[in-house]
Amino acid sequence: MSNRPILSPHRRADDRSPTTAVSRRHLLQGGSVAGILAIAGCLDSLSSGGGDDGDDENDDGDDDGTERTSDDDDDDSSETESDPLTVVDTYFEAAANGDTETISGISHELNPLEPTMWEDEGWEFQGGDGEEPEYDADVRTEDGSVDDIHALEGSEFWFGDVDLETELEGESIAVVEIAGEDEDGEATWILATDDGEWQLLVQGEEDETPDDPEEAFDEPIEDEDEDIVVDVDWEHESETGVDSDEEDDATGGDDELDLEVHQVAVSLTDSPGIDAEAVRAETAIAGSEPEVYSPDREAGGWAGSIIYPTFDPDGDQLEVLAIDGNEETVVHREHYEP
């Protein structure tokens, strides 16, 4: 559900699209830790910005030391029904079974990723196979603040028009760190009380964008022979935004929506000069990582495709990688400077 209007299509130039894959930052998978943790739930064909999780540098010292693993006994009588960790456990169990009604019941009214709301708009929640993933949950603090919400990537998109200070006045905020077995399965969950009951507000990753984007940049590399990349268009006009009038008609609202999406169009050659079963385009700051390949992952099956990763308009770096088995090679790298 992440950034619903920001569909990141991967189309062939002739509109005959091969199978595409989306990284953990974009795929919202209801039944696995890596996907659940990235944002929340899972609706088909949605993408979001993301970033690599690093060491926690934002601990305010309020960690109450409350921890739980998915193997712990859920019937601990010392916990209330709406204890933050109980809410986490309930979410994972419900997500594994595709139980969106239960997820809705533990979601805060401000949760932008409450699944039944998206189902009502025609999206499909992809739950798990009934098997709950392995995970560790650690309550960093139950005395959090609105600043903890704003520290998450995408918070401006979801809550830019919401006065969180007013909406959450008098309520408690908890910050919970979740880690799965997969090294990528790490995220921060924010819970808030509503009339004393803990509810899930938002899930995401902490924003680690450097103040100077160029700190994350490497030396440019040009695909001079056009073995894979034939064109990069930073001025591509996204076709995936949502018209504010159209949204108002659907919701009955009058507020204007600022849903501007910045995507770079990466056109791939029709005649590959490198054997690769897949091609991925990555942006360093926006964290977009769309990947394209044919259904059987045959070499060159991606030929003629166009990939549309999102990028940061304040400055970003694009890398295009050729993937052959476990080997990944950067074939093109360039920078965007506003």
The number of E-state strands comes to 14
Number of domains: 2
Residue-averaged pLDDT = 74
Poorly predicted runs of 5 or more residues: 1-63, 73-80, 240-258
The separation of the N and C termini measures 29 Å
Structural class: alpha+beta
Q: What level of helicity do the residues show? A: 10-25%
Largest sheet: number of strands, sense, barrel closure: 5 strands, antiparallel
Describe this protein with a few key phrases:
single chain, 338 residues, alpha+beta, Immunoglobulin-like, 5-stranded antiparallel sheet, 24% strand, disordered N terminus
Describe the protein in words.
- With 338 residues, this protein is an alpha+beta fold.
- The protein has two domains: 33-204, no CATH class; 213-336, Sandwich (Immunoglobulin-like), CATH 2.60.40.
- Helix content is 16%, strand content 24%.
- The chain contains eight helices and 14 strands.
- It has a five-stranded antiparallel sheet with strand order 2-11-10-13-14, with no helix packed on it. Strands 3-4-5-6-7 form a five-stranded antiparallel sheet.
- A hairpin with a 2-residue loop joins strand 6 and strand 7.
- The protein is globular.
- The model is unreliable at 1-63, 73-80 and 240-258 (pLDDT under 50).
